[in-house]
Structures
1.
Amino acid sequence: MERPDLAAAIDTAAEALVGVLDSAVARQRLAVSPTQLRVLSLLTSRPETNVNGLAELLDVVPSSASRLCDRLEAIGLLRRVADPRDRREVRLVPTAAATAQLRSRRHEAVRAVLDRMPARGQQDLLRALQAFGQAAEAPDSSARTA
């Protein structure tokens, strides 16, 4: 298989995976709104975020973002912690309960897709993902050829 075809296949698979993960987050059985779920998902992937940064990500005013955070904090899914580099800054951190629930839902969604694959395909995928991960961690070598 040529590299451009493989790269396109990986891109397509990555988009499918992101879609599966997004739909898993959207189907959360938590007693929170879709916007609150989006906030938790955003904060999980962006650990340095403060209220102003969250407001930018959501395209809302900071006071609205702060109220969203107040509600999440009240139900135990979010904490505000001082930034260790600048104690005047406050980071928004999903609690362990929020992170575990999001992760569990994503894993369930991925498992559902994997269950639709033949066992041989699952094994091949595992080996390919492990090799891809190792290659991604390896030092960049432009001189390397396939």
Note: The chain has a mean pLDDT of 83.
2.
Amino acid sequence: MKLAYSPNSPYVRKCVAAAILRGIDAQVELWTIGTTDPVLAASNPLSKVPTLITDDGMALYDSPVICEYLDSIGSAPPLFPAPGPARWKAKQQEAVGDGILDATQPRRRELALPLDDGRRDYIATQQAKVTRALDALEADAGSLGLLTTIGEVTIACALGYLDFRYANEPWRPGHPRLEAWYAKVAALPAMARTAPPA
């Protein structure tokens, strides 16, 4: 398998962490390629990372689909629970983690542009989404395990991205239970080995 890769992408990090947790990371070749490269666009019309090229040549994108595919390989405990309440909880947590990332990545681009009223409103809207998501995760922190589901993996990647790109906006104040959980999972191999370069 070949994974279109950027070391700073939290969505790529989620996929690589999932492969590590599944014990199949040695089967995944990291393919460093720019999103403007026509070779990537030929595999994924959205021309985005992550894109996974499977051993039989199928192109999969993006991180929720790739992670579910990786979960079908290997013999480690699944990150996607069987159908039922536990699965919906994991998928809900995955959506919250991905939502934090979806709100923070474009905001970073906007901050580099002239800040007119429309752009300020947009940035404030995205910040409010992240604040609400962090508050919801704090309330739910007691249910989080040690990267046993795709939801927990995604949340950990989202918090790591906030540290990486928004260190000037610390998320830990007001979220002590989430902070304690993250301190435990950040030290686990799936997170430690995939941390973005300093």
Note: DSSP finds eight helices and four strands in the chain.
3.
Amino acid sequence: MTRVLVTGMSGVGKTTILDELGRRGHLTVDTDYDGWELPDGTWDERRMDRLLAQHADVIVSGTVENQGRFYDRFEHVVLLSAPLAVLIERVCRRANNPYGKTPEQRAEIAGYVQTVEPLLRRGATLHLDGQRPVAELADAIEALVTGTS
């Protein structure tokens, strides 16, 4: 039984890594999509409760204000991080998510790196460099799930 939360700033690669883990056969939930977030940007707590109650093995990604309420339900909280310049370059060129395209949103990301990422770091059980190749990052997270780390 292993539940993993993958968190980090916009552009760090959470969706890309979850896509790879899903391709490998793992149950994954990217909370940036499919209505997991309420209009205020927090997780739908009832829905997250149901997900975690129904699935002993799941890899979830997201970064929201109320995620800490669920940390005790995850065996691992993995923080992905990368330098701000890398994050900005990635959000500017990605096609699957419009967030980060405007100067205001990029400034918001820069602010979050200073204010939110330190909070995420304190709650994380593992920190991974988001600049590593996707396959390596997926391998590291998969090892947590399979118990081979």
Note: The chain has one domain: 2-146.
4.
Amino acid sequence: MVYTRKDVSTLTRSERRRFVAALLEVKRRGEYDEFVRVHLRYFVPDGESGLRAAHMTPSFLPWHRRFLLDLENALRRVDDSVTVPYWDWTRDRNLRAVPWTDDLLGGNGRQSDRQVMSGPFAFRNGQWTIRVGVTETEYLMRDLGRRRDPIALPTTADVDRALKDPVYDTSPWNSTSARGFRNKLEGWGQGGGSASWLMHNRVHRWVGGHMAGGASVNDPVFWMHHAFVDLLWSRWQRRHPKARYLPAKRLPQGDAQRGRVIARHQRMPPWDVTPDELEDHSAIYRYG
């Protein structure tokens, strides 16, 4: 049966409670930390050698679509009424509004150490200890909006510019691709600092704390953010119905990106699945 992913701002009190409870149970079972490990394992930038499956690559979108489905399946094994809600950061931009309420994700980190002190994922409540990361910090951290060097969330106009691009991705198939919807949405821009963080990347930086690095999965907002990114891919597909995932075929000998990016019908690790098989989600879920 096809289920619906809802806008987080429309969840009822009961839906919020059940979503949080399922997340906490997946964490208690030890399954959640494995999601953090997987994301860290595939956090390979294009400055390094080897295959890039999850970031700075055409498979950024199908990789995270499958990653989301794995988490969603884990939640639904706990409570089959639960789905991953999406956070529309073009509309819900207030630091005190959804999803930053005490009955959902809790609020900002405190100024001294960025530790989240409110909500169900605060360390002091004893149910959300960070066990997998790039530091030894045990508590969840956030720095919403970046106090010392403020940045703004992407806007509807930013989203529209990305959605207008009729091509999925282009050579050199990495963070420097100037054309193509994938990189416009993933958000690797020109220059340095905050000017180079666009769209998806800018949201990670705006949340800050754990969301600013490879261990971003430690913050449950990761899933709401990527559900919205996934929704934007769906909208792009509807706007450009003849467009497909690119590259369509394995890159030729002599191409510097051969063996580094995944073509449409190549298997995508850590799963035995291709981008082609993940382009259509309509038999599994829809967006409300």
Note: The two ends are 15 Å apart (CA to CA).
